[in-house]
């Protein structure tokens, strides 16, 4: 059965961030992820994880200036030193929280930019970052984002991401496959999952089109969960969605899935 991680940036927003760890544990999650932890003390986050016996599944490197729409800088020429410094910041949090997966956001393409130069910068930065984190047992992740939610983002498709991974050539660089983004950008989720799973290091889910619970919208998530099991996926599935109402009240999809799997196991 997939190992689900609650995304504390989008879920449990009914309570302050540091209280969301307890809320997720109370609902039966044994792992969490979030976008950015940097407003909070790393040791305090680590204490919450220990107190509630939670695994830190994933978080992102610092994104740059979000106020002007930045989404990372890994592909941006001239910002290599900033990218390297942000990686060091993330590693301090990863060490404190014993997190083994970090997502390096590519960045938004500047108007009129030379995409070949962006690509070369991206590959070089990822190669150096992957080498930096490898001795620490950390997997570096890259994630394609859909153009509706992230206009101009450099990395948009699964194939593009896996081609970058192949070019970088680092065994600890993998792709973060978010079914939500993939459905909007490309569709054909089952075949894309089957084709690319060997290079996938993390899965995320949300209903399409409105990014609510995965029992809402056009994706058949139970089918994909079964396929993940059949394909032998053992990583985390991050629940990166915005609850329609209360987070706990909206977890009927997860309770039903767990009950179905428990019933199968006891049959």
User: Helix proportion of residues, in percent?
Assistant: 25-40%
Series of secondary-structure elements, N-terminal to C-terminal:
EHEHEHEHEHEHHEHEH
**Roughly what is the average pLDDT, rounded to an integer?**
97
Structural class: alpha/beta
Q: Low-confidence spans: pLDDT under 50, at least 5 residues?
A: none
Tell me what the CATH architecture is.
Answer: Alpha-Beta Barrel
Keywords: Isomerase, Pyruvate
InterPro entries: HPT_OtnI_isomerases (IPR053398), HyI-like (IPR026040), Sugar_Epim/Isomerase (IPR050417), Xyl_isomerase-like_sf (IPR036237), Xyl_isomerase-like_TIM-brl (IPR013022)
EC number: 5.3.1.22
GO molecular function: hydroxypyruvate isomerase activity
Report on the architecture of this protein:
The protein has 267 residues and is of the alpha/beta class. The protein has a single domain, classed as TIM Barrel (Alpha-Beta Barrel). The chain is 40% helix and 14% strand. It has 9 helices and 8 strands. It has helices at 20-26, 42-51, 80-97, 115-133, 158-168, 179-185, 189-196, 221-231, 252-266; strands spanning 3-7, 31-33, 55-60, 101-103, 139-142, 173-178, 200-205, 236-239. The protein has an 8-stranded parallel β-barrel with strand order 1-2-3-4-5-6-7-8, surrounded by 5 helices. Strand 2, helix 2 (42-51) and strand 3 (55-60) form a beta-alpha-beta unit. Helix 2 (42-51) packs parallel to helix 3 (80-97) and helix 7 runs parallel beside helix 8. The longest helix is centred in the middle third of the chain and has 19 residues, at 115-133. It starts with a strand and ends with a helix.
């Amino acid at each position: 059965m997939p190992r689900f991680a609650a995304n504390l940036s989008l879920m449990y927003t009914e309570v302050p961030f540091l209280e969301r760890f307890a809320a997720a544990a109370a609902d039966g999650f044994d792992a969490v992820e979030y976008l950015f932890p940097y407003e909070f003390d790393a040791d305090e986050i680590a204490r919450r994880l220990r107190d509630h016996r939670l695994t830190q599944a994933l978080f992102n490197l610092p994104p740059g200036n979000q106020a002007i729409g930045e989404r990372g800088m890994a592909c941006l020429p001239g910002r290599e030193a900033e990218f390297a410094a942000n990686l060091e910041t993330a590693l301090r949090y990863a060490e404190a929280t014993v997190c083994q997966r970090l997502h390096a956001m590519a960045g938004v393409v500047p108007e009129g930019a030379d995409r070949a130069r962006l690509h070369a910068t991206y590959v070089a930065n990822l190669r150096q970052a992957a080498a930096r984190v490898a001795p620490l047992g950390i997997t570096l992740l890259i994630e394609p984002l859909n153009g509706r939610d992230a206009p101009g983002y450099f990395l948009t498709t699964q194939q593009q991401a896996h081609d970058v991974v192949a070019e970088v050539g680092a065994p600890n660089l993998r792709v973060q496959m978010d079914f939500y983004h993939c459905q909007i950008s490309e569709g054909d989720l089952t075949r894309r999952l089957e084709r690319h799973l060997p290079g996938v290091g993390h899965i995320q889910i949300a209903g399409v089109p409105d990014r609510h619970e995965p029992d809402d919208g056009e994706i058949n998530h139970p089918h994909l969960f079964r396929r993940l099991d059949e394909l032998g996926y053992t990583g985390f599935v991050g629940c990166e969605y915005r609850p329609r109402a209360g987070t706990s009240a909206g977890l009927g999809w997860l309770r039903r899935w767990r009950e179905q799997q428990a019933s199968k196991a006891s049959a």
